[in-house]
Write a structure and sequence with these properties.
Responsible for synthesis of pseudouridine from uracil-55 in the psi GC loop of transfer RNAs. It is an enzyme of class 5 (isomerase). Its EC number is 5.4.99.25. There is one protein chain. By secondary structure, this protein is an alpha+beta fold. The protein has three domains: about 5-65 and about 200-225, Pseudouridine synthase, CATH 3.30.2350.10; about 65-195, Pseudouridine synthase (2-Layer Sandwich); about 230-295, Archaeosine Trna-guanine Transglycosylase, Chain: A, domain 4. It has helices at about 15-25, 55-60, 95-105, 125-130, 170-180, 205-215, 245, and strands at about 5-10, 30-35, 45-50, 65-75, 75, 85-90, 110, 120, 125, 140-155, 160-165, 185-195, 200, 235-240, 255-260, 270-275, 280-285, 290-295. Strands 1, 2, 3, 4, 7, 10, 11, 12 and 13 form a nine-stranded mixed beta sheet that branches. A five-stranded mixed beta sheet has the order 15-14-16-17-18. A hairpin with an 8-residue loop joins strand 2 and strand 3 (about 45-50). Helix 1 (about 15-25) runs parallel beside helix 6.
């Protein structure tokens, strides 16, 4: 079984679930999970976790992201992108300066109401399932953060921009909200995700490229080892005589450490290895009990 993370370029027309299903066939293993949904019409970076790496899915979903988007002013749709039903069309009589001012007003903290056409669940049911039934329910706004917006080109009614944002941001809702603020309406025409945490689009691989690498025995070079996701934490090697503690997921003491590389931060989180250089997991120091306790374990068959 392959363990690690692969940087997939999700192509237009595929759902994130489609990518996982196709990878299961290509890699011939079942234990695969993606790290955050991309709409079928969207393209770009989709980190996919393999084997023991699936324990990372929730951690990678939390990463900040960068998108390139095309905003189409003058049109409002039920899905907030051009794939949906047009609800309203308006003339776009605003100036470029007004567009710039409106867009840059979203930089910083941003209370965003999740769209009905989304995979968020309410009472166990996904919002898009309710939307397809013609049901619209009240959604509470969520506090997000837009780190930066770079306006690449304005050719009204279209605006091409790059958005750096926190997890959970819906770019099509941002486009909708910009259009609402301008009084013209707006929706998202194109979306390309260029970065998720450390994963960049220049390093991403399309499904057919992954299949070719498999046939050429070249897959190993594009699988990112699990422990590389934690290189911000110092590496600690525990003495072999305490392997049983490690392998059973138990806590260990400072004096059990044979070697340390790097300096611990304020929260004293470390990545732990045995003397054979096998990655055991991520541990954090418990001040009250004066011991390192596991946060996430990656050793073993599960």
């Amino acid at each position: 079984m392959i363990n690690g993370i692969i940087n997939v370029y999700k192509e237009k027309g595929f759902t994130s679930h489609d990518v996982v299903a196709k990878l299961r066939g290509i890699l011939r293993q079942k234990k695969i999970g993606h790290t955050g949904t991309l709409d079928p019409d969207a393209e770009g970076v989709l980190p996919v976790c393999l084997g023991k790496g699936t324990k990372l899915c929730d951690m990678l979903t939390d990463k900040d992201k960068i998108y390139e988007a095309t905003l189409l002013l003058g049109i409002t749709t039920d899905t907030q992108d051009t794939s949906g039903k047009i609800l309203q069309e308006s003339a776009v009589s605003v100036s470029e300066d007004q567009v710039r001012e409106a867009i840059m007003g979203f930089v910083g903290d941003y209370d965003q109401i999740p769209p009905m056409y989304s995979a968020l669940k309410v009472n166990g049911k996904k919002l898009y399932e309710l939307a397809r039934e013609g049901v619209e329910i009240e959604r509470q706004p969520r506090r997000l953060h837009i780190y930066d917006i770079t306006i690449e080109e304005i050719s009204l009614p279209r605006v091409r921009m790059s958005v750096s944002c926190s997890k959970g941001t819906y770019i099509r809702t941002l486009c909708h909200d910009i259009g609402h603020k301008l009084g013209t309406g707006g929706c998202m025409e194109k979306l390309l995700r260029t970065k998720v945490g450390r994963f960049l689009i220049v390093d991403s691989l399309k499904l057919n490229e992954i299949e070719e690498l498999r046939d050429q025995d070249g897959l190993e070079g594009c699988i990112i080892p699990i422990d590389e996701m934690f290189t911000d934490y110092p590496a600690v090697t525990v003495s072999e005589e305490f392997n049983k503690l490690l392998y059973n997921g138990n806590a260990f003491l400072e004096e059990h450490i044979l070697k340390r590389e790097g300096t611990e931060g304020a929260d004293r989180t470390i990545r732990v290895y045995d003397e054979e250089a096998s990655f055991i997991g991520v541990y954090k120091f418990d001040e009250e009990k004066s011991q390192y306790r596991p946060v996430k374990m990656f050793f073993g068959s599960n």
